[in-house]
Specification:
Strand content: 15-25%
Length: about 375
Amino acid sequence: MRIAIDLTSLNDNFTGLERYAYEISAQMVSAHPDSEFILVFKGEVPGICKELEAAANVEIKLIRRKGKLVTNQLILPAEMKRIAADAYVFPAFPIPLLFSKKNSYVLIADTVCFDLPQTMKKKARYYWAAGLKHSAKSSKGIFVISDFTMSKVKEHFPGCEKKAVLAYCGVNGERFIADSEEKMSEVRAKYGLPERYNLSLCTIEPRKNLKLLLDAYVQLKKEGHELLPLVLSGRAGWKYEGWFDEAGEILGNDLRITGFVDNEDLPYVYRGAETFVFPTLYEGFGMPPLEALASGCQRALVSDIAVMKEVMGETAQYFKNDDAASLKKALLEAGTKEAADRERIAENIARFDWRDSAERIYALITGKTGNNP
């Protein structure tokens, strides 16, 4: 079987959706040597994909790299149509609007453009809405990353849940082993991390609700409470200008902003934190708190939205979503509570396996299943 996979997103950023696309593709390539995989990239093969490039059952297709919109909506669909394949897979972003092959399979990670549109730029909201509608209508199969997203597919695209499978994000245990003290020291120096700190890591944008966390820290500081320094990590998104002005003045050296964290450093940034705080308003899955606990962070403090309860279960402490008073109380209590139970964390993490999710998607593509296992 010949399977063409759009991995052009890996040439841009490498955050949650890109990791999903990479891990699912890598697992399918490894587990199914009798299938042929045509991996499509922009301009060059990203460094993380060099091992995939060397696989005997992989063919690489490089397409021209222009502006993101031109590449994704014009060049990519034209080039994908030229590939003779039994299945066309889009494991990160919606199917291009000009691509309509019946044997297409697509990830729908979330439907935030319909559920919380105010957290997106107007153009992005329309772009994603059009892409998701097209993907739901034109695809032969859909894979989602949580039961929460499955419920949203059913809500916004009635009937499409019948062609959808649940394929969770995974946690690669080996990747999150952060046991080198030398590496830990290097990472502390590289990102200016204090000896003890609380951490929040995400794309800095309205949906992640970091403003709530900053406001809570500022208010607690003004009230005379002592908290560990707050480290904020992640790539810059949009509409966050001014967020750090007052917080920086009040918190001073107790606020550290690292910017994007390199992939190889991530487990150590997680491990160094005592509490990982995730005030997000909306997620399709929400990988960072799970990854933080896997890396050795002592506890996770997250908003009580449905998907976080689905993913974190009893391994996290919760505060009321978008409620400053609840978050302040939780921050004050966090340092007095014991670290999360490592055995319970391990049991929860075991639910999220890249190989299992890849097999569910491969079964969907090859017609061995039409719904959730």
